[in-house]
Structures are given as structure tokens and as C-alpha cells.
Write a structure and sequence with these properties.
This protein is α/β, with parallel strands linked by helices. Helix content is 39%, strand content 15%. It binds pyridoxal-5'-phosphate. Pyridoxal-5'-phosphate is lined by residues 128, 130, 161, 239, 272-278, 329-330, 415, 438-439.
């Protein structure tokens, strides 16, 4: 299995050796600015699906991943999935769920040939679905670095979810340090406590006196200093990382196998979406042959993706047009993984993909509606890929949280509520609709209180997280000071170079 860029790059060197999984594991964008995808999608046979029905999550993950990570020895990959997907890591299951299932399904509604199912993806250490991929990434990184006797310093900015998932995945890992910037006093008390209470010596929390955009600007400033980046082995773990996307493919297989008895049955998925990472994995599962009828994109008020799937027009937003909502992990101005789908929609025409995404930079978007003067007419092919979409706003979120509590007896988080609202608009007879639960309610308690008048239940061990001792440093937006801090902590026993 080798990888190509959505903008045409195919080889790592002049000898034309193709790009392999291990080579893109630690990286981000392809050298031409595109995103990596497999040269072709591996296919899954009906016989394979049958044998996969009885596997544990960890073993299923091995069989799915080995189709993509062909350059990692099978025993090693299997050991990594078995170490990652354990009952201990995904222990925050609800009392009536089986933690052993890792991503347990719950039937919310059944009748009239309609079936609504929730797949719990948020039982990992940070109570959000990003743990599903990030925990694997932590173990893959540690493995790859040990093999090459190398080190990596992850440097990133977070407004909440991604940073904590990365820290919990990388804590205590040999050869890895994490430097995570967050806006000082701007995260929720719960999120702050989650990150700052980590005492591991390889985790560095840096609270920046500014807003999230200031943190991101600092990451960019440091990343643009190529010499510094190389010398200090700086890397990132953003949502375009291929290994993160492919790790998410596994739970689509898992949900399908758990919700069906035979391979001639279909299911649909509704996915609360921001950067198009999660649902991109669903698209890949479908391209591999998993019988998925619909892939429903659910957005919040930041409806870049809903607009595209309704009109064929992709129009990124300015920051003034990007709203702070009560499902904040979907507050995006553009969808960083979207280029992967566009590449498939355009049948792998890298030339056109490059032109379209250049246009995103120069003109803020592109138009595939087929209207006179548009950039193409591929909008009419979207339904062949199963895609459709919907949108949910704050009032919908509150109403859905109340309705789910009343009718099904569980409290869902705000992002999942967006998913359920949109899923109910796309139900089809005879085809189960699976909504991905992307966080537990306790993480977004302010809105739960607004909807229900009481606090969300917290999983065991999180009751008093805000009272734990916190470890962090406060800094200004001074880039030179930031670089000095990193240098000092990367090589604490030797004078800074
Ligand atoms: C990150 C996140 C999302 C959006 O996922 P994408 O892969 O960016 O589409 C949705 N819900 C929650 C809780 C998240 O943390």
C-alpha cells in the first residue's frame, strides 16, 4: 500500500520510491500542500466481513489497519492495537454499557421499520471521540520513534478537545514531549483541569495571555522557522494526520458489524462534523465496500459543509463569520480534511484539486454546482457517495437534549445532539441510522444545565477534577520567549545551542 497526495505528489525521492505508511505517520501535509491518501482503497470481501463479526475491537482494528500500514510488521501492529483498545483505556462507559465493547451501541428508538442507534465513541480518557484515534497514534509514534532511535516534540495549540486528547495519548511515552498552548483562562474549568492536572514530565502546558488565534499564530511562527523546527524535532498532531483518519475507519466497521446480522443489510451514519475528519473515515469505509447507505454530515451554526452538500458551493468563512457556539468543537471556518473527499469526487484528478484549493486561498472557495461559470458539475455525483447533510442550531440542541433525556433516558452532549437532530430528518425505512456520540455530556455541562436545569453526570474519577493540583506556565505572545522555553525543556541538561 502506498500513498499519494491529493495534489499529485507521489514519491519521496529521486529514485521514485513510493510513499509508505510509516513515512507519513509523523507528518502532516504532503510536500505539495495536499493531503495523503492511499493510491487505491483496499477492498473488504463479504467473507472477511463474516470473520470480522466475532472479533474483539482490538483484533478488528488490526485487520482493518493492516490493509493500510503494510510496512509495519504484522506482529508489531497487532501488539499495538491490543495495547490501545482495552477496557482499561475506554473505562468511562455508562453503567449499562459494556466497556469491553470499546464503542458500544445503544438502540434509542425502534418501530415502523425505523431504527435509531447511538454509537458511544467517547469512553476514553478525555471523554471525546478524538481519543479513538489519538490513543493509537500515541502508541504508533512511540513504536516508530523507538525503531529509529528518534525523538519528537509535539507543538500545538488547542481551545479544548484536541490538546487534551493529544496529551492523554502521549503522556509517559518515550521519546515524545508535548508543548501545548491554550488561551489563558479561556477554556472551561473542566477542560483546563483535564489538561493542567497531568503531572507527567513530558507534558508542558503553556497558558498564553491571549485568545486561541494568538496561540495558533505562535504555532505558525515557530513552524515557519524551519531551522528551529528541524533542530528541535518539532511536529504536530493535527486532524489531517492520515493515521488519525484511518484509525477512525475501524469504528464504522465495528458499528456495521454490531448493528447487522448479514452482509446484504445496509446502515447509515450521521456524524457531527467540523473538520471533516470523522466523516472522512466513514467515506473511506464505504469506499472499501462497507454497505453504508447514507453518510449524513451534521453541522452547527458554522454550516460550511452543509452549504456544500446542499448546493455544491464551498465557501470558507472569515473569522468574523465564524460563530462561537455551544457545540464548540465544530466551530470551524473551513474543513481541513475536505480535500480528501473532493479528490475522490473528482476521480483523483490532482490537477483540478490543486486548482480548486488554490482558489480557496485566493478567492475563498469554489463552485461545483454546474451553474454557468462554475468550476465543475460534480455536485450531481455527490449522492453516488452516499453524502447528504443537515444543520442544527442552539435552540435545536437544547430541544434535542431535552427530548433524548425524556424519551430515551440518557443525557447526550451538545455535538451529539446536533447529530441526533439531523439524523431524525434522514431516517429511512429498513435501514438503521447510527449516530456517532462524539463527546460525553459532562464536558459541556453549561449547556446541559441550560437544557435540563441540572448538571450532567460525571464518570467515576472525574467528580472533583477541578480541585486537583495543576501544572502550567503562563506566557505572553512573545515568540522568542516561547522558543527559549522549548529549547530549555527539550535539552534540560545541556546548554541551549
Ligand atoms: C473534533 C470534534 C468534532 C468534529 O470532528 P471532525 O473530525 O473535526 O469533523 C465533533 N464533536 C466533538 C466533541 C469533537 O471533539
Amino acid at each position: 500500500m502506498h500513498y499519494v497526495s491529493t495534489r499529485g505528489y507521489t514519491s519521496n525521492n529521486s529514485a521514485q520510491a513510493p510513499v509508505l505508511f510509516s513515512e507519513i505517520l509523523l507528518g502532516g501535509l504532503a510536500p505539495d500542500g495536499g493531503l495523503f491518501l492511499p493510491a487505491s482503497y483496499p477492498q473488504v470481501s463479504s467473507e472477511e466481513l463474516n470473520t470480522w463479526r466475532s472479533l474483539s475491537y482490538a483484533d478488528l482494528a488490526f485487520f482493518v489497519l493492516k490493509k493500510f500500514a503494510t510496512d509495519i510488521p504484522e506482529e508489531d501492529l497487532h501488539a499495538i492495537t491490543r495495547k490501545t483498545y482495552t477496557e482499561q483505556v475506554y473505562q468511562n462507559a455508562r453503567a449499562d454499557e459494556s466497556a469491553q465493547d470499546i464503542t458500544p451501541l445503544r438502540v434509542l428508538q425502534e418501530g415502523d421499520g425505523r431504527k435509531l442507534i447511538l454509537q458511544a465513541l467517547s469512553n476514553g480518557p478525555t471523554l471525546a471521540f478524538k481519543d479513538m484515534a489519538m490513543q493509537l497514534l500515541g502508541n504508533l509514534f512511540e513504536y516508530a520513534l523507538a525503531k529509529n532511535n528518534a525523538e519528537l516534540n509535539i507543538f500545538g495549540a488547542t481551545s479544548g478537545d484536541t490538546g487534551s486528547a493529544a496529551e492523554y495519548a502521549m503522556r509517559g511515552k518515550k521519546g515524545i514531549r508535548v508543548f501545548m498552548l491554550s488561551p489563558h483562562k479561556k477554556m472551561s474549568a473542566f477542560q483546563t483541569a483535564q489538561m493542567f492536572s497531568l503531572q507527567d514530565p513530558n507534558i508542558f502546558n503553556i497558558a498564553v495571555e491571549g485568545v486561541f488565534d494568538d496561540c495558533q499564530d505562535m504555532v505558525k511562527a515557530v513552524s515557519n522557522d524551519l531551522e528551529f523546527k528541524r533542530k528541535l524535532k518539532i511536529g504536530t498532531v493535527n486532524s489531517i494526520n492520515w493515521a488519525r483518519v484511518v484509525a477512525q475507519v475501524v469504528y464504522y466497521f465495528r458499528a456495521y458489524l454490531a448493528a447487522t446480522q448479514r452482509n446484504d443489510q445496509q446502515v447509515s451514519f450521521t456524524v457531527p462534523s467540523g473538520n471533516f475528519g470523522n466523516i472522512c473515515a466513514g467515506h473511506i469505509a464505504r469506499m472499501m465496500g462497507l454497505p453504508i447507505a447514507q453518510l449524513v454530515v451534521a453541522t452547527n451554526e458554522n454550516d460550511v459543509l452543509d452549504e456544500f452538500f446542499r448546493s455544491g458551493i464551498y465557501r470558507v468563512r472569515q473569522s468574523a463569520e465564524t460563530y462561537h457556539t455551544t457545540s464548540p468543537s465544530m466551530d470551524i471556518s473551513k474543513a481541513s480534511n475536505f480535500e480528501r473527499f473532493i479528490y475522490d469526487l473528482l476521480d483523483g484528478d490532482a490537477e483540478r484539486v490543486r486548482a480548486l484549493f488554490r482558489k480557496v486561498e485566493t478567492e475563498g472557495g469554489f463552485d461545483l454546482s454546474g451553474a454557468p461559470g462554475s468550476d465543475g458539475d460534480e455536485f450531481k455525483r455527490i449522492s453516488q457517495f452516499g453524502f447528504t447533510s443537515g444543520k442544527s442550531v442552539h435552540a435545536d440542541r437544547l430541544a434535542t437534549i431535552r427530548q433524548v433525556q425524556k424519551e430515551f433516558g440518557i443525557t447526550v452532549d451538545t455535538h451529539t445532539a446536533d447529530g441526533i437532530k439531523v439524523a431524525l430528518e434522514h431516517m429511512q425505512e429498513g435501514i438503521p441510522m447510527i449516530v456517532l456520540e462524539t463527546a460525553l455530556a459532562a464536558k459541556f455541562n453549561e449547556t446541559i444545565k441550560e437544557a435540563l436545569g441540572h448538571d450532567a453526570a460525571r464518570p467515576k474519577g472525574f467528580e472533583a477534577i477541578e480541585t486537583l493540583p495543576q501544572q502550567f506556565v503562563v506566557m505572553t505572545t512573545d515568540v522568542a520567549q516561547m522558543k527559549a522555553y522549548i529549547t530549555q525543556h527539550v535539552a534540560p541538561n545541556s546548554p541551549a545551542e
